[in-house]
Known about the structure:
Mean pLDDT: 92
Structural class: alpha/beta
Distance between the termini: 93 Å
Strand order of the largest sheet: 6-5-8-7-9-10
Low-confidence stretches: none
Largest sheet: 6 strands, mixed
Shape: elongated
Number of strands: 12
CATH architecture of the largest domain: 3-Layer(aba) Sandwich
CATH class of the largest domain: Alpha Beta
Strand content: 5-15%
Helix content: 40-55%
Amino acid sequence: MTLPPAGAPALPERTRTWLAHPALAPLWERVRDRLERNRLAVSGTVAVELDADGAGRLERLLGRRVTPGAVRVRLEALDESLRSSAAAAGLVAVATALGGPLIDRTAAREERDAAWSAVWAELDAGLAAAGLIAAGWAPTFTEGVRRSGLLTRAGAAAARSAVGVATATLAELAEDTQLIGAAEMVEPRWELAELAGRTTGDAHGLDDGHLAAALLLRAVAAATGESAPSTPAERRALWERVGVTTDQVSGTVLVWGLRPPGPGRWAAMMRERADQGLPTHLTLYELRAAVEAPASVGERVFACENPQVLQAAARAGATAPLVCFSGNPASAGLLLLARLVEAGARVRYHGDFDWAGIRIAARLARRGADLWRMGADDYGAAVADLPADARLGLTGAPALTPWDERLGVLMRREQVAVHEEMLLIPLLDDLR
């Protein structure tokens, strides 16, 4: 015996079998579709193609002549005929018994819309509670989240939970960062597991793959003018921009010829590697554990943006110590810079002559680095030496150059980017 769907009337078995005949299947399919689009109201007409068997069955049910082919059926008439037949049930009940529960699509859509309205309202409320709703990047962030489908793919319930966690974490981070404007890189304050435990109750609650973490990093990307992260390295870099260390061993800062003066084993190891001509990757873990100063008072330590510069220095046997931040400095790089400045070393930094490179240079200058061959004259000479077919245009928003205002003026006029590796000869001359 075939059991009816839950909540459906128990049609007599013979009647159910007769109504469920394949010849009438096109009719029930059209009827279900019309009812679900019509808030389950029994009104209107459906058009359906029926063969001779289907037309004959419908004729017996309706009590009127039905010819094979295109047939139009009024739902009210079908409902009345079913009620007076052996089915003894209305059209909605019979359609449910034959094909399962009907869905009021309009009501379902309204319910979904209401659920998502609550999600977006909660996102705005969370940003407001964090003091970030007026930030210039907030509209870009919220619109980007809507367009990305990041939350909608997860469903409204999961989205609301993620919004609550992400905005609570943003509120925690906003106390120590400039998320209200364009976020400046800050000193490491949190371990990711510690922050996650505080805001989610789970040390892994902000790990990769968690919706709340993805949402939060989109906010950080918007605040810093970056694209939404798509790789583990990009996600780690964004965490570090707001003072969160994902771990102490993945991110490194690359050094060449660094000879700490102390008597300890770490300083001796670094001097030995420098004597052997070996570049060294220093982790945050190592730098936090090292007790010796990384350089002597008054010692010149050069720093660059691109690893190719350090590689060229190593090949040339450069004698001056060189630090490479590999783009925007990570936590390890920032800590090393702070340790060098604290030790009284003179850190001289060079980076790319593009707007991103200028912003990095400005950040490092504010942290105590001197700028090295980063003036207007250096840029002008570099542009003049570039072949016409090797010139790259500047992209992005211009940045201020407070150490040499002429540089910013000249870059805006020339609109040419000059990357570090194009200046290897003069840079290496200084390192010898």
